[in-house]
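Researcher: Here's a chain I'd like modeled. Treat it as a single chain, no partners, no ligands.
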Amino acid sequence: MPLDNALLRDLALSYMARYATSTAKLERYLRRKIDERGWAENEPAADLEGLVARYAELGYVDDETYARTKSGSLLRRGYGARRVSQALGKDGISSDIREEIAASEAELRHAVLAMAQKRRFGPFGADLPDRDRREKQLAAMMRAGHDLDSARQMVDAPSVDAALDWAHELDEDFLDEAG
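Model: Modeled as a single isolated chain. Structure tokens:
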């Protein structure tokens, strides 16, 4: 059944109710639905940009809130700054917003720690890694968006306590920013 303006609005509202989204993701979704189902012949052309702008104006979709939420989620899962920025860029978040919500050094250290714990890297493994395994762990951390220095700090930590101490070294600053 071809879409018309009323159905398009319903699809947009339904999508926003189910998923956290950015304006660009919402527009891509609606464009895809029009491509899949077609547009009713007797309807004026769809104004996707106007519809999305209207929902942004009403606060139904907010790029900054979406970016903060997505960024926090990715950091908690152990991704680094570069991967977070790439994911937000893919979702249509402007570079200004990405810079504004960029993670602090304390948040990035917590992300490195989360990845090391989850993947059992460095001191979190059964035993300290040999040279080849260490290189693979560093490469995995780099692919996850962490900088080399932070990855080395975590993988080369002599003990779990040393890794935790390094990761929590900036917590006072982190707590000040969060509170």
